[in-house]
Design goal:
3-stranded antiparallel sheet, 2 domains, alpha+beta, two-stranded antiparallel ribbon, 5 strands
C-alpha cells in the first residue's frame, strides 16, 4: 500500500479497534498514507489527537506532552478518594497479601471496577505495574487488607 520514497522516512501507526493514530517525520508522507487509506477504507480524518485511550495529548512547538491526569482523577473519584494524600511508593514494602485473609470481605464489584481501570493508567505510570498486578490477584474475594493495598496505589 504505502510506498516510501528514496529519502529516509518512517510512519508509526497505532491501532485500537476502529481508532488509528499516524505519526511520522514527514507531513507529506502522513498525508499520502491517509489518502491511500481513504481510497481503500471508509474513514474520516479527525485531525490532531487531543485524547486517546485515556491519554491527553497536547502538541506544541516544544513537542508533544502526554498525560493521564484526568483519567487518574476519574479513577480516584470512582473510589471516593479524590481528596487523598500522595504516597512515596505505590505499595508498602514487604506487604504480605494472601487469598485467605481473615479480614472482612469488601464489595468485589467495586474492587474489580477499580482494578479494571488501572492497567490503562500503567501506560504513563509504569511504576504502578507491579502493584497493580499484585492487587489484581485478589479479585475473587477481596477483603479490607486487599482494599487497603489497592487504595495505596495512587
Amino acid at each position: 500500500m504505502y510506498r516510501r520514497s528514496h529519502k529516509r522516512s518512517f510512519l508509526l501507526e497505532g491501532v485500537y479497534v476502529d481508532d488509528l493514530i499516524i505519526s511520522g517525520l514527514d507531513v507529506s508522507d502522513i498525508e499520502q498514507f491517509k489518502q491511500e487509506m481513504k481510497e481503500k477504507l471508509s474513514m474520516s480524518d479527525l485531525g490532531l489527537p487531543s485524547y486517546y485511550l485515556g491519554i491527553e495529548v497536547k502538541q506544541g512547538s516544544d513537542g508533544i506532552n502526554l498525560s493521564q491526569s484526568s483519567y487518574a482523577l476519574k479513577i480516584l473519584e470512582s473510589a471516593v478518594m479524590h481528596n487523598c494524600n500522595a504516597t512515596a511508593n505505590p505499595m508498602e514494602t514487604r506487604l504480605k497479601l494472601s487469598k485467605k485473609m481473615e479480614d472482612d470481605v469488601v464489595n468485589p464489584t467495586s474492587y474489580r471496577s477499580i482494578i479494571g481501570s488501572l492497567p490503562y493508567l500503567v501506560n504513563s505510570r509504569p511504576d504502578l505495574a507491579f502493584s497493580v498486578s499484585v492487587v489484581g490477584r485478589f479479585m475473587e474475594a477481596p477483603c479490607k487488607e486487599h482494599w487497603g493495598a489497592l487504595k495505596h496505589i495512587h
